[in-house]
């Protein structure tokens, strides 16, 4: 088996300084790179001052632009062949997540995934198939890949928040409804938020929703366990 691609990308250390007590991995969309979503980190850091943020570049050059990266091809419309690509990228992303957890000295219950568009697709595919649940997943303007396989392949069920604009010109709002239904059928706790008038993007309210959700989930993780 060939060696897996090693991911890298920009990092924002905790706003409060010192050692991070939690980690958010930001997964960008098609044709962008890690510098795109790391811009969310200062906004999330207001609610998560002790969290480190990392935004890896997707492993492959963008097939439709001279710059930017992609997690998988969007030109292949065959779902089964696209799924093969996604599974290969999942191996790369899983290895990266494992390495970052180890490097930061945290557990899975201190890790969150935040994705946009294709990054949401990867987040919703990877998180359920990891051995231990992360603290939560926030998905912006994405869709659920491999819905029919999710029930059989789910290993862990982190809580999930989905945010989508009702004027999304690239991934229509019905993708949110499809993802929510598929995740709920597989036993996930899902919150969905529709942003009126928003296209394929992330607005301030969506950022607040995601940051508040992660802050609440980390607070639950921090709460003393009953003896």
* First-last Cα distance: 46 Å
β-strand number = 9
Structural classification: alpha/beta
Secondary-structure arrangement, i.e. CATH architecture = 3-Layer(aba) Sandwich
The residue fraction in helices comes out at 25-40%
CATH class: Alpha Beta
Which descriptors would you attach to this protein?
Rossmann fold, two-stranded antiparallel ribbon, 227 residues, 7-stranded mixed beta sheet, 9 strands, alpha/beta
Describe the structure.
By secondary structure, this protein is α/β, with parallel strands linked by helices. The protein has a single domain (11-222), classed as 3-Layer(aba) Sandwich (Rossmann fold), CATH 3.40.50. 36% of the residues lie in helices and 17% in strands. It has helices at 34-37, 41-45, 79-104, 118-126, 147-153, 174-185, 204-222; strands at residues 11-12, 22-27, 51-54, 60-61, 69-70, 111-116, 136-140, 160-165, 190-195. The strands form two sheets. Strands 1-3-2-6-7-8-9 form a seven-stranded mixed β-sheet, sandwiched between helices. Strands 4-5 form a two-stranded antiparallel sheet. Helix 4 links the parallel strand 6 and strand 7. Helix 5 (147-153) packs parallel to helix 6. The N and C termini lie far apart (46 Å).
């Amino acid at each position: 088996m060939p060696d897996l691609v090693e991911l890298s990308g920009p990092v924002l250390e905790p706003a409060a300084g010192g050692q991070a007590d939690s980690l958010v991995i930001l997964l960008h969309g098609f044709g962008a790179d890690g510098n795109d979503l790391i811009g969310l980190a200062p906004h999330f850091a207001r609610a998560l001052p002790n969290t480190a943020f990392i935004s890896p570049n997707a492993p492959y050059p963008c097939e439709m632009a001279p710059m930017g990266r992609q997690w998988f091809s969007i030109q292949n419309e065959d779902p089964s062949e696209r799924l093969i690509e996604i599974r290969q990228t999942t191996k790369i992303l899983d290895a990266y997540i494992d390495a970052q957890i180890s490097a930061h000295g945290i557990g899975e219950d201190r890790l969150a995934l935040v994705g946009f568009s294709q990054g949401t697709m990867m987040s919703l595919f990877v998180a359920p198939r990891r051995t231990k649940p992360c603290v939560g997943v926030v998905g912006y303007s994405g869709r659920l890949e491999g819905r029919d396989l999710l029930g059989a392949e789910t290993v862990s069920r982190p809580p999930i928040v989905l945010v989508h604009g009702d004027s999304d010109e690239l991934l229509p709002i019905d993708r949110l409804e499809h993802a929510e239904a598929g995740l709920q059928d597989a036993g996930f706790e899902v919150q969905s938020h529709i942003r009126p008038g928003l296209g394929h993007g992330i607005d301030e309210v969506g950022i607040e929703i995601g940051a508040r959700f992660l802050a609440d989930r980390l607070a639950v993780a921090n709460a003393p366990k009953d003896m």
